[in-house]
Amino acid sequence: MNYLIIIGIIGFLIFFHELGHFIFAKIVGINIASFSIGYGPVLFRWKRKETEYRISLIPLGGYVMPEVKDEKEFFNIPVYKRMIFSIGGPFANIFLPLIALAGLGIFNSGISFTSVLITPVVQVFSSMLVIINGLSRIFISPERLSGVIGIVAVGGKIVDSGILNAINLLIMLSLNLAVFNLFPIPALDGGKILLYILEKIHPKLKKIQIPVTIGGWLILLVLIVYATYNDIAKLVA
């Protein structure tokens, strides 16, 4: 049962991430054709205004697709709007821990300027620095890399130890998702923002975005396979 809770938490964080993209797109006036939670075959779908909402078979993922007909129409969207659209997901995964930590602060210390605003910001900033340091060490010790299987295995034990630990796990997973997505790998939000900056510096550089992004997805696929192998090896050891 605890493992299902962890999968639910991961699914919720991905939903919140995509919701951030969706909201930021609406703020800057980018129409969204589809908002999907999950990948693969569509289980449920409904349409409201111009957007089709989907719930797909594989829950550990999702996407928000702008309403564009082709590559040319996508690049006609101003660069600053595309950058804001891309930052929406990581922002949502930072905003959620701020709210959760503010709630914990109120519960522990009562309502005050410090417990609601100062302490959560300091805690989030400190945690993100720790996460960045930890992720950087993976390049030195790749055996530390863990994927969904490892997160579910470890997270199930954490959830079993109480609701407070489950909330702290949600906070850390959300911040990990934010930091990871800000890495300058082209398939990730940070990589997209980097490519948009390069496009702004020299418009002809937009021609490299699609092939570079495909390369980024291949890198991510290799990382996912390797992380899954690591997780399985640790479980059977």
Write up what this structure looks like:
The protein is an alpha+beta fold and 237 residues long. It has one domain (2-236). Helices cover 68% and strands 14% of the residues. The chain is built from 8 helices and 2 strands. The protein has a two-stranded antiparallel sheet with strand order 1-2. The mean pLDDT is 85.
What is this structure, in a nutshell?
This protein has 237 residues and is α+β, with helices and mostly antiparallel strands.
Largest sheet: 2 strands, antiparallel
- Gross morphology: globular
Distance between the termini: 23 Å
Mean pLDDT: 85
Name the helix and strand elements from N-terminus to C-terminus, one letter apiece. Answer: HEEHHHHHHH
Q: Strand order across the biggest sheet?
A: 1-2
How many separate helices?
Answer: 8
Counting helices, strands and paired strands, the structural category is alpha+beta
- Provide the domain count: 1
Low-confidence stretches: none
Q: Kindly state the percentage of residues in helix.
A: 55-70%
Q: How large is the share of residues in beta strands?
A: 5-15%
Record field, number of beta strands: 2
**Rg (C-alpha, Å):** 19 Å
